[in-house]
Amino acid sequence: MIETSKVKLSSRAAGGAAFLKRESYMLEARSCIVVAVAATALASGCRSAPGYTDRDVDITEADMRARIGFLAADQLEGRGTPSTGLELAASYIRSEFARMGLQAPPGGYVQRYRLAMTEMGADWSLALSRGNRRALLALGTDYWGLPWAAGTVEGDLRFVDAVGRPGMRETGEPTIWVARLSAAVLPREWLAEAADAGAAGLLLVLTAETEALMSHWLEVGETLYELGDVEPSLPAALVTESALAAALERLGLEATTTAGAPAGSGVRARLAADLRAETLAAPNVMGIVRGSDPELAEEFVLLSAHMDGLGVGPPVDGDSIYNGADDNASGTSALLEVAEAVAALERRPKRSIFFLAVSGEERGLLGSSWFVEHPPIRLDRVIANINIDMVGRNWEDTIAVIGKPYSTLGAIVDSVAAAHPELSMTPVGDRWPQENFFFRSDHFNFAREGIPAVFFFNGVHEDYHMPSDEADKIKNGKAARVSRLIFEVAVALANAEQPPGWDDAARARIVEDGR
Ligand SMILES: [Zn+2]
Predict the structure, then answer these.
(1) Which of 69, 211, 346, 429 has the CB geometry, 3.0–4.6 Å to 2, for a possible disulfide?
(2) What is the DSSP string of 312-325?
(3) pTM summary value
(4) Looking at residue 213, what is its pLDDT?
(5) From the record, what ranges are coiled-coil (predicted)?
(6) What is the CATH number of domain 4-114+281-512?
């Protein structure tokens, strides 16, 4: 909770504190007024004289504390995607961008994307029968539900061994397809095939080899979020080869028939799929500081940070709000502070700077995936992406910049840091290569599009993805200095003679192979 007395906010800050006391009412009301109050209180403003010394670019510890304190307040309930708390954060960022004078890209400050939410219920059942024999399979050991469609289907079992057999159409009695998973055919391809052919349901057989393919299947109570709308689909399940063989044996058939019982083998299946599917919507918030050079203003340096968090989850020591102060109220606040500093410059950099606060990152980089698929600007005009994710913890004077060796961006960051010893902030390389962090935040979606990208990150810590990732643990001074470094890097890129370039090997691996 912001104890406004601690931040440098003026008496208007008291308004903010009063807001938090009335939180339950205000949240209901989604009151933008309150967001505006908090925002203006923070607007101590930046200066504009070129040649940016400390007294010019006023990104302070107090600013970071106030912004992180607001975004990570319990009232925003960890900013899960989607949620009321996330919408409040988005309104706050949008009104801040407008107050700072950032231009709205085509389509406006807010881009909304749809996501399909599928929650696995507990009332699944799967039974095979043949004549008066019946074999019940056990959920969670013999089979797992697939998050595709709810409903109960019953029909003849049809073993299908190849996709794309022309003319394969179900015309008679409802049938439930059985197909062995292989590396050649993805589960969704079988789904499309079965649906096209008019099957009523689908069982995918997990062999020992293919078990590795399915990295994770949903357990009861788990929820899956995917970009787009909930698509009409078929009830379906994953069944292990051994469980299917045992069931067929109990029905008096050879165990070896999992490869394909002859048609008319009289085996029927009944599958009850219990899941709740809904199409939801979530926001990305964007703003542009237009460049000063008539030509180069058509090129963009894109700064990004995810504003979402884990939301409300399993309680730990009685606390179920995953406040996400470091992950990623810190990065979102850095994005806002840099935007404010750039927007206040009298002499703007030559290129434009695009500020992007995405959501859905914790759900699988959803917001940034949607952005690169539906960009309001031409992506081939984006010369670099600087992503900011977790910059308020760990070392006092050091920040990791993941992706440095992959393009000349790394050298640019190092030279800017060297030119600003007053920030005492050392950018180091990836200290945890085994963690594959380059692939685990939003910049990866830009890198895959061929845009050189780096990501400012302080490493994980004991509060990472825990309810205890609270604002009072943030090193606001450090976060301010990291933000100041990012400001300098962004401006240097926006004024650079040449855009940054990829290291060829890295480009081949990340852009071509996406790995
Ligand atoms: Zn994060």
Answers:
(1) 69
(2) EEEEETTEEEE--I
(3) 0.83
(4) 60
(5) none
(6) 3.40.630.10
